[in-house]
Amino acid sequence: MFDRLRVPATVVAALLALVGLWELYHWVWTTTGWTWPFVVNDTSMPHVWTIIKAFGQPAQVNQPSLIVVLLHKTAFTAKEAAAGFGVGAVIGFVLAVLLVHSRLLQRGFLPYIVASQTVPILAIAPMVVVWVNPKLPGPLQGWGAVAVIATYLTFFPVAINTLRGLQAADPRALELMRTYAASRRAVLWKLRVPSSLPYLFSALRLSATVSVVGAIIGELPTGLQNGLGGAIFNFNQYYSIEPQELWATNVIAALLGIAFFVLVVLAEKAVVQRSPEYVA
Amino acid sequence: MSSAAAIPAVVRLEHVTKTFPRGNVTALQDIDLELAPGEFVSLIGPSGCGKSTLLRVIGDLVEPSGGVISVNGKSARQAREDGDYGIVFQEAVLFDWRTVARNIALPLEMLGWDRDRRRARVREMLELVELSGFGDHHPWQLSGGMQQRVAIARALAFEPALLLMDEPFGALDEMTRERLNLELLSIWEKTGNTVVFVTHSISEAVFLSTRVVVMSPRPGRVAGIVEIDLPTPRTAETRDSPMFFALVTRVRELLRSRGEHLLPEEEELLEADR
Fold this sequence. Notes:
The complex is a heterodimer.
Chain A: H1 2-32, H2 48-56, H3 66-101, H4 103-116, H5 121-132, H6 143-167, H7 171-179, H8 184-222, H9 228-237, H10 243-271
Helix pairs in contact in A: 2-10, 3-4, 3-6, 3-8, 3-10, 5-6, 5-8, 6-8, 8-9, 8-10, 9-10
Chain B: E1 11-20, E2 25-35, E3 40-44, H1 51-58, E4 66-71, E5 74-75, H2 76-81, E6 85-88, H3 100-110, H4 115-128, H5 144-156, E7 162-166, H6 174-191, E8 194-199, H7 202-208, E9 211-216, E10 221-227, H8 242-257, H9 264-272
Parallel strand pairs in B: 3-8, 3-9, 6-7, 7-8
Antiparallel strand pairs in B: 1-2, 1-4, 4-5, 9-10
């Protein structure tokens, strides 16, 4: 009974502590007048209750309340991120499988895969939009290009970690498979893939949050207004007047990332069968 | 080696040599050996005598540098591809993500057996190694000795003629080891496999085998072969019989006769086994 309550209780306690620290910092810095490292006032650090109140009020006249608007935008960004995450995970996995079977491919391709991630996403996002968007069928127009950007960020950790996992198969187990004269395919599916799962899932946990960030960043150069990226861009411009709206959006964006992460953790618990003391 | 012409040998080695180019080590030099069906042959010797290499050569896991090997009248490679042998390593090498039953079924899946046939065989094998009721457990829930029994069940599941065992009980404590020795003998009596058993324990080799092949190191070669004519079935009391002690002494003397090749720590190993 108490065990089942422990995790939620910890989460609530951590949240309350965070709110408490935020308000304490706000109070100490405003009463003492300290200005290091930045000036604290209701613009730089709006009160928690101001942010919470902002959810219930419309951001613009004749609009529904901010929370309703943000939830719609969240659904849109979640769609982009989920598509990018799914496609990126598949691409990363397939790449890892190809690379583990060919030393030549590994030597030839791996440096480029690594190099692909050194290019800042903001620099190539506009090109992705210009190149990809016209090729997309109607229903994918716009958000599809953003999903491609999320894919670009997602596939990398999956490819690298899965490759490591596939290579981490126990050499004695590989020898055992050799005594069965097992085909490459049998070795892959019965040994390499199952033993790579903890590596795959640690990459997926990382990629889950990265795909959300990728989707939000991808929305900026595309000028899409339907998602959280567009909202962040807008509220940024009004920050000096109404900071609570940007903060509210940030909270929602963080919750979306956490939701993605938790979904992957739940999937991992359902799939991976390991001894309790096993740590990847 | 009685009437090898009449009964075809399960394993035949002629002038088998293995050198490792790195360090120019001669692991095996000119090994001749023949195993009749149903024999239980132990390979014993200090570390570096090539006993594990010899086992791997028979299993086509290591390519010999010279000589001829035949297993079931075929090349070692063909025999491996035909599933003519099962193998047990020092570690159980069970797949954590599979239950005990599915670990035993692994080689059967490889052979394309259907589900019902696999299930029936797994049940038989669990009975054979006395682990009925543990089929749904995961390997990490079992003790080391139980894990090794699962490995034996897996190795015998597809009824190979030959069972290769590379120090299978080397990582277990003495009590478990002696119990598993008895269990292995009763399994062997039921299945009639030909067994090649690598060990560095003299008493284990004598207790289990019909023949003990004593090897010596640098270069690895056969120092002598001791026929073990202890009465069967062997029991815990066999270890206390004068005949058992005589055979242990005989094997130890053979190991010592090449004493000038032993390193100090290998001497200690032999002493400890006394």
